[in-house]
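ok so for the tutorial part 2 we go from a plain amino acid sequence to predicted structure tokens. step 1 is just haveing the sequence, like this:
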Amino acid sequence: MLEMRPDCERCGRDLPPESAEARICSFECTFCAPCVDGPLAGICPNCGGGFAPRPTRAAALLERYPASDVRRHKA
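step 2 — the prediction. this is what the tokens look like for a chain of 75 residues:
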């Protein structure tokens, strides 16, 4: 099951579970679309992999399977 990380690891932008702006690599590194399409040029800075849109999680399932609240952005 996806961890559904709550923020962009580069800029700190909020990425709630329903966000269409979240992008993930195969290791679930999570970034926002503007960072992936801009400065990161589609390459994950952590693992060198590519990105795909992160699937959303149905609101009805969030209570049973909550998204992570651990923020990864380093200020």
